[in-house]
Write a structure and sequence with these properties.
Length: about 300
Amino acid sequence: MKKYIVLDIGGSAVKFALMDKETIHTKGKVKTPRDSLESLLFVIEKIVQPYTGSIGGVAISMPGRIDSNTGFAVHGGSLKYIKNVHLAEIIQERLKLPVKIENDGKSAALGEFWKGGLKGVQHGVAFVLGTGVGGGIISNGQLVKGHHFSAGEFSFMRIDGKRPLDRDNFFGSTGSTTDLVSRVAELIGEDQESFEGQDMFRLIREGNEDVYAVFQEYCKGIAAQIMNLQVILDPEVFVIGGGMSAEPMLVEGIQNALDKLYEKDLIYEMTGFKATLKKSELGNDANLYGALYQLLNS
């Protein structure tokens, strides 16, 4: 069975895997260069080089506004050195292999659609909670890319009509699990650099009511935006992903907040349906599977 190298390029790490359409054979990661596109290309070449001659192509998931049809990157999100560049063409020329690139949130949605919680679903949403809020939309069994290839950029939703330009009120800020953990660390006087999500959940399990209140407020904010997206997109299911989703308490907390809101929701009383949540089955591998799916179906 033909194998491929799949890259998930993030702001801090480039995760990579040797895969075929059935499984992940090996995985690894290296630090993402922050200085230049040339440095990133060098890293990609170094990852792929050991497999030259034995793989059928390279699939890439990455942040930013990406025209996945042509491989043109309008921007690379937090990778500021990627701007208005024919990225797939450049990488393909370096590697002498077929290359396909897709936005990371859309890759997650494709991965869930192919192998995970959206498999067999005609209308669904992948919600990726992390530094921001990423994701993708499946409609009529197809990935929604949008006219500007920006569909599913949930981070850019403005949640306060009185201050719509205040970045602190973008959903990417209020829905950030990274910011949630930082707020909890500040609340209890812990070092924000070393305090992690697992520390927060441990305190909740130990009965820390102040930490639990912050967590509940966060879950309520996520639930409110899920309700908004439910009435706009009318999906069958929302799959919740991102690193913190591995902790069952996160999806349970969002579900509890959602249930409480629906108890008093006039729209639910009228329509008779509500949003359905599901924990990601693929976790952080969703992007890898989605990027490969894009390559295999291009």
